[in-house]
Amino acid sequence: MQKLTTRMADGREIVWFDGPEHAPRDPAALVDHRDLPRVVPASQLRYDALAGEWVTIAAHRQDRTYKPPADQCPLCPSRDGRHTEVPSPEYGVVAFENRFPSFGSAPGAPLPEPGPVPQAASGRCVVVCFTDDHDTPFSRLTPERARLVLEAWADRTAELGARPGVRYVFPFENRGAEIGVTLSHPHGQIYAYPYVPPFPQRMLAHVAAHREATGENLFDTQLAAERASGERVVVAGEHWTVFVPQAARWPVEVHLYPHRPTPDLPALDEAQRAEFATLYLDVLRRLDALYDDELPYVAGWNQAPVRESDGRADARLHLRLHSIRRAPGKIKYLAGSESGAGAFISDVLPEAVAERLRSL
Q: Cα(309)–Cα(315) distance, rounded to whole angstroms?
């Protein structure tokens, strides 16, 4: 992998990732010619004492770019006199600071302390563009490009996790209009949080309790049980297993676990990285074949927190992908029970989903 870091017109960092076959890039040819004001994040963290959770208020994001036509896409390359977020007529994979971030980019801010006073939402939000082709979703990338995206995720995880004030790094992709995607170019984001978000925090609390009660790692126990049963396994490779969890919340939900206990993306070895690229593409193409349409989904990497005191030692890297589409033309909405009481009710049998995906 080749990597080059430059700056955009407003000072934001942009990192270029290319395969070994690409000619080395000339930084002098990657100049952002736009006249942009510097980004000054104004997000706040507010603590919900009853839920024990942080809420981010990012009112400036109301003005972010919203569903532009394809010929005005800000994530496409800069061509024919039109300047975009990527100052080059072509690119492989690029990662850059979000122009409308949910979290600020100023390093060194103190970690938030629960209380009634709003606090600055430090951290960083990074956009990752998977390809310069506006019409090629992740599922139709080549294995070489999928591997390059993985390398970019791992590289950014390591860099963001080393920043002062960051406690959790979460790479994710939102795909599809039903999910609420406002830019249709194939891309994802990475959020570097100044706290451990509620979902991984709850998972790690259960993992710690299980460790104390049994001496075993709950992530490893769950993976071993799914592999032994096989009933919900979709694809099993030498280094990864893809399965529908037995208590799936969503109509379509798959988890990808590496067999070797691995804390985070930078810790993946060569064999794991190589197999992931082909395995993940296989899974995405099965999902797109499920309803003969590109499936809307959210895919996110759960990985170890940055700090040992947050449960890093027992955390296990895994990817969770879910879709709100429960049938052709039908959406699973988070209605009263889910959004009001936090209690999921699913209309779809996990075993049936796994069997269907295996058959595709």
A: 12
